[in-house]
Amino acid sequence: IKSLAFEKKETVFLWTDQILEGKKDIDDLIIDDIHQLLCNNDIPSLFTRKEKDEILSERKHKTFEDFLKASKGKLQIMLCMNPGSNSLRKYFRTYPSIVKNTSSIYFSNWPEEVLRSVAIKSISSTSLSNNSELSKQAEDILVTWHTSILKMQEEYNQASNTRLYITQASYLDMLKSFQNVFNAKTDYFESQILKYSKGVECLNEAGKLVDKLKADVESMKPCVLLKTQETESTLKELQKEQEEAKKKREVVEDQEMKASIEKKVSEQLQQECQEQLSKALPLLEEAKAGLSQIKEKDLIETKSYSAPSTTTMTIMEMILILLGRKIIYEEHLEGKKRVKGPNYKKSVQEMLKNTKKVKADLQKFDKKGLPIPEDIIKQIRDRLDSLQSEKAAVQQSSGAMIGIYDWVQAILAYDKAEKAVEPKKTALKDATARVQASTEEWQKSQAELKAIEEKRDELEERFRKQTSEKDTLKQQMSECQVKSTRAQDLTDRLKGEKKGWGEKKKKLEEESVNLFGDVILAVGYASYLGPFPAASRRNILNNVWIPLLERKAIPCSKEFSVEKILATPLEILQWNAKGLPSDSTSLENAVIMSESKKYPLLIDPQRQGLEFVKRKHDNNVQFLR
Predict the structure, then answer these.
(1) Is the C or the N end of the chain the one with fewer CB within 10 Å?
(2) Main-chain dihedrals φ then ψ at residue 109, nearest 5 degrees
(3) pLDDT tens digits, 561-587
């Protein structure tokens, strides 16, 4: 009110009887306040004394009455009430100022253009908005439902001598119900058809998968058989190689032991030879020491002797024989006969023509002249024996002759010692040859064993790989068999389900063809036909609504039933279990009561409806008596 007077805003106070519907005390208080405004332009006790002083202190109004007049000029009050309600009659009787101070305007039924425009807006929120032809038909049918009910209302009022009101609110409720039910049913049918289609598709895919698994199993069988044969063949070859490797290892071990024994024998012979030779080496050193006493000038001096002594000659003959120089033979008289014999003197002189070579040959004799043949040793021994009797003559000889004499004795002693070792040397040589032969044979066998073991290792690796591949294939085949068996078992069990799903899908597809017609009949039935008796319901349904759909070529169920469209079989069973009679009229009434946005008025002389309502709400119902 302050804003009306101070800001001078044009304001409309709009009040409908539906704002506080059901809140009787508050509703009466507000109507009483409206009555005071209409009569006195004021609501008693609305402003306190302090608030009034504050209003006057603004100095825009001289008195409080001026303030009220200023606000009254900017305020319009609009009351919207249902002419068929008891509230309007009660308010007219209780508050006469409502009639006196207002202009009553009665609105008749909406014209067809308004009904159609409202229907168009409502249909635009459904899936029909994508189908212009069907949207147009829906507009015509919904408007026809409302206009036909208005005619039926007048006929019923005249026939029954009662007042039944069908207002635009019922039309709006029908549009809202059509919007909700059609969208819900469309979503339901699409989801159910998709669900059953996917179910059938999954079962078909499962069947294909079973066939593929069976084919995989069959294709794996030759591979597994081939791998098994390869593995068995490799195993036999491996066992053969293992046996051969075992035998070859035994041979190698025997050869190794034999070579070891031969080596020990050879080492022992070598040690014995070395020991004996070590004893003879001093003799050789002694011979070399004697040889060092010989000087070339002594040999030249000996060569110059025209008549060398017998001792010198004997010593030089031993050198001549040992060095293997040529002996000159000449004929001479032996008795009366001329015989050919050796001339050692000439031979020695011939040998001494090259004293350097003689000395060099003597120095190399231990390397080239040994061993000394036995016939030569005999000749040397004979001469040494002859010199034993002339030992004093030898001692008186030149230093060269003494050195040669000592060398000859030493070299013979060394030759004797070396010949004593010769059997062991031969044995050592044979033993060394045997060691080398056994070692070579052992090494060869080792190489052969290594090749066999490498082949065995290769076969073992191949066997392991083939066994692993075979086991993998067997496992894969086993898994495929298990999957195939389980999938086959599942598909066998679901064969009936597949058939049922296909039938349900087909039934849903057939029902979806009738969906539009069934829904538009059901929402009209639930929105309008509740107050009418069963005969009137059947009359308008069979003689007006269904023929209209047939003329417009809109399919609907041949045996239309509102409870099949707006209720589920489970809900109907629950209603029946809670006391609802199973006749069609009772079922229709229960559906209308459930779908209606208004409070139902039950005409229930047998109290069946009351018992059903109590049980439906588990006795959580308050009774006002």
Answers:
(1) C
(2) -60, 150
(3) 888 888 888 988 998 988 888 888 888
**pTM of the predicted structure, to 2 decimals:** 0.53
Instruction: Spell out the residues 6+ positions from residue 586 whose beta carbon is closer than 8 angstroms to its own.
Output: 580, 608
Structure tokens at 264: 């020990």
| Phi (first) and psi of residue 319, to 5 degrees | -65, -45
Angle between helices 515-528 and 132-160 (to 10 degrees): 30
**Which of 322, 303, 326 lies closest to 313 in space, CA to CA?**
303
Alpha-carbon separation of residue 405 from 293, 296, 300, 385 (angstroms): 11, 16, 17, 12
pLDDT of residue 455: 82
**Measured between alpha carbons, how far is 325 from 318 in angstroms, rounded to an integer?**
10
pLDDT of residue 27: 63
| pLDDT per residue as tens digits for the range 489-514 | 877 777 777 788 888 888 888 888 88
The Cα–Cα gap between 36 and 95 comes to 10
Could you tell me if 403 and 290 are in contact, meaning their C-beta atoms sit under 8 angstroms apart?
yes
Residue-wise pLDDT for 442-470, tens only, equals: 778 888 878 888 888 888 888 888 888 88
Give the contacts of 296 (CB within 8 A, at least 6 positions apart). 355, 356, 359
Give the distance from CA 177 to its chain's centroid: 51
Measured over all CA atoms, what is the biggest interatomic distance in the chain, rounded to whole angstroms?
213
Residue 486: CB partners within 8 Å, gap ≥ 6?
A: none
- Rounded alpha-carbon distances, angstroms, from residue 150 to 155, 169, 467, 528: 9, 13, 90, 10
